[in-house]
Amino acid sequence: MGYKVYEAYKGFILDYNDKELIKFMTDEVSKFLKSKKALKLIIDPYIPNVSRDTDANIVEGIDNRWVDEYLKSLGYQYNEDGAQVKWVYCLDIDGKDDKEVFNGFKNNTRNYINKTINKFKLNVRTLTKEQLSEFKQITSDTCDRRSFADKSLKYYENMYDCFGDKVTFKICELNCDMYIEVLEEEIKEYTRKVEELSDSSSNKKKKEEMRKNIENNKKKIEETKKLKEEKGSVLPLSAAMFMLYGDEIVYLFSGSYAEYMSFCGQYRLQWEIIKYAAENGYKRYNFYGIQDVFNPQGKDYGVYEFKKGFGGYVEELLGSFILDI
Length: 325
Known about the structure:
The chain is an alpha+beta fold. It is 44% helix and 25% strand. A 9-stranded mixed beta sheet has the order 4-3-12-6-11-10-9-8-7, sandwiched between helices. The protein starts with a strand and ends with a strand.
């Protein structure tokens, strides 16, 4: 009937401690939107609701729950179907160098990252606009596998054009030849140690373990050679899109090939951009959306667990609100 819905993504941007200001903004925007034949307005303030720890437990700190009640007193209704994320996972890096940040990760996460650097020798490459089809291939594969709706290649290209140096697309790759070389060097080292150890009973278990490692490495070499023959020398593992804006970097979209998960490409991508954030004065790294926070059996709880490995905290945003105009 000619009416429109207006939405202020992550707005209004103002001081929510100032009730008079919130009321003034609401009244004046309402007047303006009536002249624009607005049916309703949706806002989604970019402020936390209440402070939480890494396990989403409420902790001492920020408490903006009163804002919810105040917005409702002005005529807003809470919107259960808000399009923007309400739960995000963040990492505070303000004033920390990359070593301090790295030491705050969980042991498993640190081990995975070290493996990607020292054993897998993974490479992280920044994509040009002309190379965004490589990013799109990975996200399409991931979205098909997980039943998500992917963005179009045109969307990613538009983001590249619109945001310039405030957006970056990165891809993580395995060089098969370099990986095979590492495995062969390990075999030499294990062989040398086996030969050097005496045949005493105390060394028997050590020798058996090293021989197992040798056989495992030989198996991995054959698997990698087969991959190289089928897919080429350099294998794309994972890709991610990051927004660099204000005092934070936001991890927005990503994907990984399921068959290469064991190479931990996403761990390496995360570490590269977190390290960059720490080295370039950003105050926090935002892993962005998490779901199934309170449901360990939920299909997206694993994503939350992955992000928790980096030692941050859950941020519950205020949420979405509708104002009938």
